Amino acid sequence: MERKRFEAWLQSVSTSFLTLTEPQKNETLDHLISLSGAVQLRHLSNNLETLLKRDFLRLLPLELTFYLLRWLDPKTLLTCCLVCKRWNKVIGACTEVWQGACKALGWQVDDSLQDAMHWKKVYMKAKLRMRQLEEREAFETSSLIGHSARVYALYYKDGLLCTGSDDLSAKLWDVCTGQCIYGIQTHTCAAVKFDEQKLVTGSFDNTIACWEWSTGAKIQQFRGHTGAVFSVDYNDELDTLVSGSADFTVKVWSLSAGTCLNTLTGHTEWVTKVVLQKSEVESVMHSPGDYILLSADKYEIKIWPIGREVNCKCLKTLSVSEDRSVCLQPRLQFDGRYIVCSSDLGLYQWDFASYDILSKPAQGTLLTWSHIAERVIKTQDSANLSLLSLGEVFALLFDNHYLYIMDLRTEQITGRWPLPAYRKSKRGSSFLPGVTGWLNGLDGSNDAGLVFATSMPDHSIHLVLWKENE
Prior knowledge:
The structure is a single chain. The chain is α+β, with helices and mostly antiparallel strands. 21% of the residues lie in helices and 35% in strands. The protein contains 9 helices and 30 strands. The protein has helices at residues 3-18, 22-35, 38-52, 56-59, 62-69, 74-80, 85-92, 95-104, 116-134, and strands spanning 139-144, 151-157, 160-165, 169-174, 180-185, 189-194, 198-203, 208-212, 218-222, 229-235, 240-245, 250-254, 260-264, 273-278, 291-296, 300-304, 316-319, 328-334, 338-343, 347-351, 357-359, 365-369, 374-378, 386-390, 394-398, 402-407, 412-418, 431-433, 450-455, 461-466. The strands form 8 sheets. The chain has a 4-stranded antiparallel beta sheet with strand order 1-30-29-28, with no helix packed on it. The chain has a 4-stranded antiparallel beta sheet with strand order 2-3-4-5, with no helix packed on it. α8 (95-104) runs parallel beside α9. The model is unreliable at 360-382 (pLDDT under 50).
């Protein structure tokens, strides 16, 4: 048949075909297929796949494509990236998808950064780190060796760890290299705190001393306590040092002069922790920017307005139970907004603006918090699980055998790390958390450095550090 006559015939058949009902169309196609040979059937097979499978990512508007992709989980998205180059490009360009995937893993997200490929890479890094936590591959350990007697006091800041020992010395270590930067002769140390120039030590000899790192010289001594000094804190801006002692008192000192400005009484047990911190909230009793002193003993936490007057009175006494058989564990956390302390029952948090208990554990549970809602975390044995540090996303906990990372949003342990038989201390001075910023959400750069440190029976210091990813 000539081409012109064929085109006319085809047009006529097509017009007639369109007037048929659906069943008639199907019957017509069946008949044509039965008349077709191998060449026609192969042609039909090759073209049907293209006609039946539509690429919706190519056909849909980009904003609608991004909306649909947000409903897929990250694992499925990564599989879709393997379909073809175009799918990989489109999916990789969806910023909100990858930001959401990162948030779901507990990672901090800067919404102002709209580089989609950056967030895809961050997600891949986050996924690797979370898998390492689950499989106990996220950390590594090392030891600091140098003391010849019991190490009783630890303090960590900016990559440096200070250790105070019964061998009448204090040492400053670089935790990444394991090198001792300074070593000075002191008294027996029950508490230490340092900055770039000086070291402040509280001692079992009832005194406090201030030492110069560069020379090892004692530049100030503070006498007045009649019991061991278990905790010290200071602020150069206020020229103020505070101390807690086994004599049941808290003392406020002039940091530069060494004179006692005030003795705060009211505790009925050893004062094992003092914290000097700026308030970040306002209430009837204090304003943002006021310096606040917290002191804790075995059963109570007392709050003092240290920045307003020297002869200050206790603003509030906090306790978790009237039952004296319930003790506070020796970890007190205060960021200017919330007070957090654990007990034999679990973890308590108070709103510093109102002193209301925002989180209170029920029997047999460990209760923690986030800035959004209360969290009730069920554990098999909350009495043996102790707080190291608490953030907005993760909590760092430990017991006699393991270090635990807990996701506060899911209330699940996301990782744990075995601990050696470390030295136990009722005051909690022989162990501490390292870098804690990652507890508010990992960001790809804050998962580095020290995680946990504790003194050992052989007088060494056991370190748990983040393992670097290449």
